Each structure stands twice: as C-alpha cells, then as structure tokens.
C-alpha cells in the first residue's frame, strides 16, 4: 500500500503559497510515497514536481485542477494543461484523451466550485473517481454526501488535503493498493478502486489563513494587471 497525496496547490495557483521544493520536502517529511500538485488551471509546477520527486524519495504524479463550466475537476496522468471553461463532459473527455483519469473533488461543496450545482448525479457518475474526503471542511456533511454517492454507484474513492500551504500536505491521504512505485501503477489502482481513505480536518485557523492569502494574492494579481 502506498500513501498518496492527490490535492495540493503550489505558488503557481492564485491561492497557493509555497514553491515545489518546499512541498516535496514536506511530503517526504510526513512519510508520503507519492504526491500530485494540482494547481488551478496550471500544470507547470506539477510537471516540475514529477521531475524533482525522485530526489525526495517520492513518486510525482502529473495533474491539475481544471475549472470546467460546471466546477472543479482534477485531471491526473496528463502531460498538457486542459483548458478551463469547457463543459463538464468535454473536460472529462480532454483528460481521457491524454490517457489520464478524471476525479471530481468536493462535488457537493457548491461554495467551493463543486460540480453538483450544475450537473446531475448521472453526470457525476461518469467521473473515474470521486474525492470523498477533503480536509478543508466545516461540518463534514459534504464529504459524507460524496462518500455515500460513490458507494451507491460503486465508484472509486480518493482523499486530498487540498493544501494551499505546505504544512497541510498529508492531512488527507489516499492509500493505494499497489506495490509498484510509479505514477501509472498508482493511477491504474485508483481507477480500479483499490483505495482506502484516511484524513483529518484542516484546523479552522489554517483554512482561514489559506483563504485570506488567496484573496490577497488575487487582489495583488488584479492590481498588477491594471498597470501592465
């Protein structure tokens, strides 16, 4: 069984703070086997992490969090960025055209771009896997909804810390049933449903700090664009 972190944002995301190197150091320090950096609509840091991960004793999994018209979708095993703004179905298709798998994160959290505000349950069931534990929660209700849905449709399940600062890497872990330490083997096992979930809530003050930092960086970016 490998311990895999599947939802982390670097400084390349508008709401992320830390560079790839810091994230990999943290992942190694907490005993992870593999990690995917999943920036918002960006893939460069993830591909950098894939290259650097072996230096930290880790497997790097390429991925990104894509802003579809319906909401956020995680694409893993891709080499090129999937453009934002596509429909839900087209986003899934674009991920699969690259040989990747599509995982829907926090689907029932509408305030965080969960897709269930805009797609049907039948549509959600078309994903390759569902993120059923996201560490950035208030009550846990949305996570429980996601798990019930995944179990009712016999869909593979994942967890993710949704870390926007390095210290939160590893808060939620997907245990993957494979002995082969490679991204392909890990993603194949996830698609087959050979996973178990472990996670704990991100402390509320950390969630607040992450959110505040994201707003600050977004404002700074907007000001910068005005003066370009």
Model description:
There is one protein chain. This protein has 228 residues and is an alpha/beta fold. It is built from seven helices and ten strands. It has helices at residues 20-29, 44-52, 88-97, 121-124, 141-152, 183-191, 204-226, and strands at residues 2-8, 34-37, 59-60, 63-67, 72-76, 101-104, 129-134, 157-160, 172-176, 195-199. The strands form two sheets. A five-stranded mixed β-sheet has the order 3-2-1-9-10. Strands 4-5-6-7-8 form a five-stranded mixed β-sheet. The longest helix is centred in the last third of the chain and has 23 residues, at 204-226. The termini are far apart.
Total helices: the number is 7
Mean pLDDT over all positions: 91
Q: Cα-atom Rg, whole angstroms?
A: 16 Å
Overall SS class: alpha/beta
The termini sit apart by 49 Å
- The portion of residues assigned to helices is 25-40%
Q: Could you name the ranges where pLDDT drops below 50 across 5 or more consecutive residues?
A: 219-228
What is the strand arrangement across the widest sheet? 3-2-1-9-10
Instruction: Characterize the quaternary organization of these chains.
Output: single chain
Describe this structure in a few short sentences.
This protein is α/β, with parallel strands linked by helices. The chain contains seven helices and ten strands.
């Amino acid at each position: 069984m490998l311990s895999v972190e599947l939802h982390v944002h670097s400084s390349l995301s508008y709401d992320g703070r830390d560079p790839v190197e810091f994230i990999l150091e943290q992942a190694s320090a907490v005993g992870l086997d593999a990690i995917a950096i999943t920036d918002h609509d960006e893939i460069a840091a993830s591909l950098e992490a894939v290259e650097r991960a072996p230096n930290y004793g880790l497997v790097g999994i390429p991925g990104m969090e894509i802003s579809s018209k319906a909401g956020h979708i995680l694409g893993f095993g891709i080499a090129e960025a999937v453009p934002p703004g596509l429909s839900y179905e087209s986003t899934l298709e674009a991920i699969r055209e690259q040989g990747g798998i599509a995982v829907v994160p926090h689907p029932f959290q509408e305030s965080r771009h969960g897709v269930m505000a805009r797609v049907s349950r039948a549509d959600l069931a078309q994903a390759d896997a569902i993120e059923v534990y996201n560490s950035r929660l208030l009550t846990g209700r949305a996570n429980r909804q996601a798990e019930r849905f995944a179990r009712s449709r016999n869909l593979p399940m994942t967890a993710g810390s949704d870390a926007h600062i390095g210290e939160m890497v590893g808060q939620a872990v997907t245990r993957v049933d494979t002995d082969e330490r490679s991204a392909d083997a890990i993603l194949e096992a996830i698609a087959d449903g050979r996973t178990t979930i472990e996670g704990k809530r991100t402390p509320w003050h950390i969630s607040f700090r992450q959110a505040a930092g994201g707003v600050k960086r977004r404002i700074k970016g907007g000001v910068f664009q005005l003066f370009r």
